[in-house]
Design brief:
Blueprint: H1 4-11, E1 18-23, E2 29-35, H2 38-44, H3 53-61, E3 64-69, H4 73-87, E4 103-106, E5 114-117, E6 126-128, H5 134-148, H6 155-159, H7 166-169, H8 183-197, H9 201-217, H10 221-240, E7 249-257, E8 260-269, E9 272-279, H11 289-294, H12 296-301, E10 309-312, H13 319-326, E11 329-331, H14 336-360, H15 363-373, E12 382-391, E13 394-404, E14 407-408, E15 414-417, H16 426-443, E16 451-455, H17 458-470, E17 477-482, E18 493-498, E19 501-506, H18 512-541, H19 553-563, H20 566-571, H21 574-577, H22 585-595
Parallel strand pairs: 7-10, 10-11, 12-16, 16-17
Antiparallel strand pairs: 1-2, 1-3, 4-5, 4-6, 7-8, 8-9, 12-13, 13-14, 13-15, 17-18, 18-19
């Protein structure tokens, strides 16, 4: 580790897909990579053992890193490719060559052909891409063949033709090799393919529509029918894949926390995210996000080629003035495809703002803040937090996360499947989870935490206090973390009970102690939801027969094959159940009773 700041960034990294950039002391990008799990992947670069020679050399030159979160792994892959081209990082030359990504090209032959290619490009060809995989590129070629019928055969095969091949017979090629289509019309089809691959949907649809009307006017009904079929296919594709037709734009999001603003700008070209920039404006502590965003936008784009559209997260009061100054259109309520990019920008802004605040308030300051706030004799070494998650009482789970010296210790995280309670009873759920956790620690004579946070109000806290008193533990400080007004982050209230007196503590949103407590609480919430969703999914896909002892895989299959479905089995009598091979009277009675509960 280079310093404490780098360690804090690593420990609090997101487990999302995205791209990471390794930087040297001068801030130059020396390596770009993609990851399904950013936290795990980036952390590997700072492990001291089991690294190859090239990675060790890279490690010696890393001074910092930055990340860009993406919605999908495919977006991460394409963004990595663009960033490698943009920065040409020193250590990417042998590790990842951007030429490995497939492109679709249009050749410069008399009758241009479509194909897929990797490697060094031919300067006379037109290339489109890159595509995330060869399969994606091939799927696109199949689609183009069906709609435009432009040839995809090799030049040697094309030159050797004396009659149309099978592709023409089944309607996938217009056979320019033997003159089944005029050169002029073939070139028009190639032009339409180029428009399609460039994502210019409106222009493409207009051109096809004009050609259809023109052919109809000239009484060329065969050509008109062909253009009609193209138009129908293209409109269908546009409806299914509207994001393919997104124009060039910049997407701007701004967030504020602890009197710090973060502006995130995501650059989108031809519907593809190609990079981003992050800013932390100064002298804006008391200003609103709208006011802060209005000021730097014209300055940022001064002297630059602005895109046709800028998508923003807030409606600005001086929008008309800004649009005239920027010569671009501002959109603050984007539709589906553009909205996805705005969500990505907001996600990155949230992560960068969190990292900024974590670096501003180091763990030591945060722990000292908790010690002072809760009047502890020493810094809290181990802190734990409980949270309950369920959906209308279904599949209730509890989480217990553990933080040691202010950092998460995931190996000690625990989850509890809550049983035998009234659905939706959070008090009973907290009671059960706290009892199971600390009675086990007591039995195994393990160390108790210094503080236990309970996500909830006084009711949940009282349940935890009651449990700890019943098992004889009085060395642990119990603290409730109640949500603030409007459930807004940063307005939480801490609740403690001492000598039957309830004490409520409200801290300012930017207080170091509250930032760490919120981090612990958010982690317990994330862990609880994750496990709840798994349990809920399993329950909804699990057959009710699986819970009956004595009914294994073979007997379940026999029952389902005999009756045709679980509903029929539930309605079957004991006598009917016994007709299934392997089901005797005792087991049939057991099945009947279990399914009727």
């Amino acid at each position: 580790m280079k310093n404490e700041n780098l360690k804090i960034k690593l420990e609090n990294q997101k487990k999302e897909s995205g791209v990471y950039k390794m930087l040297d002391k001068s801030g130059k990008v020396i390596y770009v990579g993609k990851a399904k799990n950013l936290k795990n992947r980036v952390s590997n670069y700072f492990a001291k053992s089991n690294q190859d020679e090239k990675t060790q050399l890279l490690q010696k030159n890393i001074d910092d890193f930055s990340i860009i979160i993406t919605k999908t792994e495919t977006q991460a892959l394409l963004l990595e490719n663009d960033l490698i081209k943009q920065f040409k990082p020193k250590y990417n030359i042998l590790l990842k060559d951007s030429k490995s990504y497939p492109y679709i090209y249009i050749s410069n032959d008399k009758h241009p052909r479509l194909g897929m290619f990797r490697g060094k490009k031919n300067k006379d060809y037109h290339y489109f891409g890159p595509y995330p995989s060869k399969y994606a590129a091939r799927d696109a070629l199949v689609l183009l063949k069906k709609i435009f019928k432009v040839r995809q055969c090799s030049n040697s095969f094309y030159r050797a033709r004396s009659r149309p091949c099978l592709e023409y017979q089944i309607g996938l090629c217009s056979a320019p090799c033997v003159g089944k289509i005029s050169d002029e019309r073939y070139d028009q089809d190639v032009e339409l393919v180029s428009l399609f691959l460039n994502g210019k949907s409106t222009k493409l649809l207009n051109q096809v529509s004009k050609k259809m009307k023109s052919a109809s006017t000239d009484l060329d009904f065969e050509a008109a029918a062909k253009y009609r079929d193209q138009l129908i296919s293209l409109r269908t594709i546009q409806e299914k894949h509207s994001s393919q037709f997104t124009s060039d734009m910049d997407v701007v999001s701004i967030l504020k926390d602890a009197e710090v603003h973060c502006i995130e700008i995501v650059f989108v070209r031809s519907g593809k995210q190609i990079g981003n920039e992050t800013f932390f404006p100064k002298n804006a502590k008391k200003d609103s996000c709208e006011r802060v965003l209005s000021a730097p936008l014209p300055l940022y784009y001064l002297g630059k080629n602005t895109p046709k559209e800028i998508v923003i997260c807030h409606k600005l009061g001086d929008k008309i003035l800004l649009e005239s100054g920027l010569s671009t259109k501002l959109i603050h309520k984007p539709k589906i495809d553009k909205k996805l990019f705005l969500e990505t920008a907001t996600l990155n802004a949230k992560e960068n703002l969190k990292q900024r605040l974590l670096l501003k308030y180091t763990k030591t300051k945060q722990l000292e803040g908790i010690q002072k706030t809760l009047a502890l004799d020493s810094l809290p070494e181990v802190m734990e937090c409980f949270d309950i998650s369920h959906t209308m009482g279904e599949a209730t789970t509890a989480s217990c996360v553990v933080f040691e010296k202010g950092l998460p210790k995931t190996s000690e995280y625990r989850q509890f499947n809550i049983k035998d309670i009234t659905p939706g009873d959070d008090y009973a759920a907290i009671n059960q989870a706290v009892f199971r956790r600390y009675s086990r620690l007591l039995e195994s004579k393990k160390e108790m935490p210094d503080i236990v946070f309970i996500d909830g109000g006084l009711g949940q806290l009282n349940q935890a206090i009651m449990v700890m008193n019943s098992i004889g533990i009085d060395s642990v400080l119990l603290v409730g973390v109640a949500k603030g007004e409007g459930r807004k982050a940063g307005l939480e209230t801490l609740i403690t009970v001492e000598n039957d007196k309830v004490k409520r503590i409200s801290l300012p949103p930017f207080d170091p102690a509250l930032l760490l407590i919120n981090h612990i609480r958010d982690e317990s919430h994330r862990f609880a939801i994750k496990n709840h969703r798994k349990k809920r999914a399993k329950k909804r896909t699990q057959s009710s027969l699986e819970s009956i002892k004595g009914v294994g895989v073979n007997k379940r299959s026999a029952l389902l094959n005999h009756f045709g479905g679980i509903q029929e089995i539930e309605n079957a009598s004991v006598d009917e159940l016994q007709k299934v091979v392997g089901i005797n009277y005792k087991l049939a009675t057991k099945i009947r009773e279990s399914l009727k509960k």
